[in-house]
Amino acid sequence: MLALWIGMLCTVAVQAQGQGRPDSSAEARQILVMLHLPAAHFRPDASYGGGYRNDNAGHSRLTIAQEVADQYRLTLVSRWPMPTLGVDCFVMTVPPDRDLEDTVKLVSADSRVEWAQEIQSFVTLGEADPLYPIQPSATFWHLDRLHTVATGKGVRIAVIDSGVEEDHPDLLGQVTARENFVTQQAYAAESHGTAVAGIIVALRDNKLGITGIAPDAKIMALRACWQEGGKSLCNSFTIGQALNFAILNGAKIVNMSFAGPRDQLIKRLIEAAQQRGMLIVAATTADDADGGFPASMPGVLAVADKIQSARPASILYAPGQGIPTTTPHHAWSLVSGSSFSAAHVSGLAALLVQLRPGNNAEQIRKSVVTRSAYISGAGSGNIDVCVTFRKLVEKCICECQ
């Protein structure tokens, strides 16, 4: 059988590690202690080389942090690598018998420390999910306005990807089926699949993390890919099994954030899904002018994160740079790549399916209105969601004049 080895189309810009939110009483006595991180280095496959969690330098920084905590009689609570700032952030608790401000000054003067500071308190204004304001979809797609008429309720989306962390606090109750088609490995929660799932269906107004594009939709977490080093891989057989499951179990939308060689098995299964009215959303690869396979197949919603010349006009562009989303270990991260643009469109499609449940995949695909010009660098893409919704609900939802 022809093997199809597929590299995920993602660049994980920030791989954050968190230990949960401290309670408010303890937080008043906590400080942030920053240690220097080595410079990020990226491999040609767009994965991060070296990793922030498991590298030897990471263990060394943890040792230094513990030494600092011991010296100043602090309690090391948790850790959050911040590669965009070039620091490893450690949360430490100051004992009641020590002055908080004096302790910050002492620790900041330590040569091992980049800087230290008190944990400041902020109040949210508007959205109940703290990362919502930095979601590109919040600004460019007017997500709060879209959710007044559709949230994806009743729509099932098959996410064919690596493992999803279904007990993530922003994904609780969002996974209705979990299948592992990588039979040589036990099911595992992995970065790529969890990130894609969060963009599509993260819970709304739970005072945590982000808001999914379709927060009332549900996903089938179909693990056909596995994490290997800094990337995720799949093959014909695992993808084929996942597609078969999605077809047999009533998925309306299938998200496929991967690309590879043209494959007969996958092609036929996609055609079978389309014949049953299922909508296929696929990420494009920059390596092929037509977007690559399976994105270039007829009827597939092909999605990219960056505009390229000499590409088919049918390719959609959606937010895909610096996207906050869910990651394993109950954390959130910033991610970039066409994988995550495709997840945006899968979520949008779920909203459209809810509004027009009787429409077939082709009608849903044609209902997406695009702009004539792509706003380069703005991150908005070329989908005019306000006009798309205006046509479907016959009233203005956003950007009303």
From TrEMBL:
It comes from the Bacteria. Residues 152-372 form the Peptidase S8/S53 domain. Keywords: Hydrolase, Protease, Serine protease. Transmembrane segments: none annotated. This is Subtilisin-like serine protease protein. GO terms for biological process: proteolysis. InterPro entries: Peptidase_S8/S53_dom (IPR000209), Peptidase_S8/S53_dom_sf (IPR036852), Peptidase_S8_Asp-AS (IPR023827), Peptidase_S8_His-AS (IPR022398), Peptidase_S8_subtilisin-like (IPR050131), Peptidase_S8_subtilisin-rel (IPR015500). Belongs to the peptidase S8 family. The active site is at residues 161, 192, 339. It comes from Herbaspirillum seropedicae (strain SmR1). Pfam families: Peptidase_S8. One of its GO terms (molecular function) is serine-type endopeptidase activity. The keyword Ion transport does not apply.
